[in-house]
Amino acid sequence: MTQYTRATFDQVLIQNYTPADFIPVRGKGSTVWDQDGKDYIDFTSGVAVNSLGHCPDEVVEVLKRQGETLWHSSNWFTSEPALELASKLIELTFAERVMFANSGAEANEAALKLARRYAVDHFGYQKSKIISFKQSFHGRTLFTVSVGGQPKYSDGFGPKPADIVHVPFNDLDAVKAVIDDHTCAVIIEPIQGESGVLPATQAFLQGLRQLCDQYQALLIFDEVQTGIGRSGEFFAYMHYGVVPDILTSAKALANGFPISAMLTSDKISKSFSPGVHGTTFGGNPLACAVAVKVVDIISQPHFLQQVQQRSKQLIEALEKINQKAKLFTTVRGLGLLIGAELAAEYQDKAAELRNKANQFGVMLLVAGPNVLRFAPSLNISNEEFALGIQRFEQMVDSLA
User: Has 223 been labeled as part of a binding site?
Assistant: First the structure.
């Protein structure tokens, strides 16, 4: 039998990633085992995807049942799981209409295309400007990576989509300086994830809502990472009381099975008439059935309360460790999306510390070169949480 190792990656796969030195082969709850049988406490949940942990029994049961029933039927047909999932998302949010795709990038691509198409339908082709924010991240398609505010991801691919403006995050005056009657949309992450776990302020999001209303532009919330309970509410917009016109969701929607959703109003959705936009696999019965179960679990008030309680425990634990270690300058975030910004002594060493944590049996994320990101499963057990914190503290102690 062929033995596949980390070295095999360097031989057969395109080198657009630099994965860890070990290969996970099994996961249950918030524990992962590698090829050698070593266990790790997972504080990444697959980059905020496995919000119910690895292979949760109740979700696996749905996966098996639907897997023996109907996987795919194409968008020439609808399916009962898709109708059920859409109905639940509408019941739980501001939305009146839902469209399914397969990834966060696809959901954001659809949202941006819908915003432009809606503007053309109602105001004309001149209303095409999109306002985004520096250091934002919205996906890897050419459109979404151009709208994202990190040129390192969009440069080098030839001409970019036009009429996209980037301004500083949490700076309402900067938005006021560029928004006008030609603006069709403002897109924002309520918490910037990849750039360092930076929450938007209440006043900023409220101001964006008012400006979009004033200039008849659509407000798009990218909740690919912050949605489905990650923030301690079902969606982060619920913390702020600011309702977007379009919202995108992916990552945790089916706990790792690929699916995404774009949520909007009935009026706006009409600009996606038949044939205007589509996707082969989007809304397939298997993904939707799994997502229904995930949504049923995470949307329960008692579950979301537990997320908020665990968030406090995580922040308190990190601050306690930091009292003696002086590793961080600040610990910030919302729910179980927490960023710990490194002190001057450890600048540009986030990836190095992440790799070192692996040696102590704990899996971490980074958010840029100077922030360690903690995004454990929303239902991580007390035992796994305590062990993960203990191992992280051991790693920090080793730095001294």
Answer: yes
The question of whether 251 is a catalytic residue gets the answer yes
pLDDT category of residue 216 using cuts at 50, 70 and 90: very high
Determine the pLDDT at residue 2.
Answer: 86
Alpha carbon 244 to its chain's center: 17
Give me the CATH code for the 6-55+301-399 domain, please: 3.90.1150.10
Q: Check if 6-55+301-399 and 58-298 are the same fold.
A: no
Does 222 count as an annotated binding residue? yes
| Catalytic site includes residue 222 | yes
pLDDT in tens, 67-103: 999 999 999 999 999 999 999 999 999 999 999 999 9
pTM > 0.90: yes or no: yes
CATH number of 58-298: 3.40.640.10
116 assigned binding-site residue: no
Per domain, the residue ranges of the chain are 6-55+301-399, 58-298
The Cα–Cα gap between 39 and 345 comes to 30
Is it the case that residue 309 has pLDDT exceeding 90? Answer: yes
Distances 319 to 48, 165, 308, 316, 339 between C-alpha atoms, Å: 22, 37, 17, 5, 12
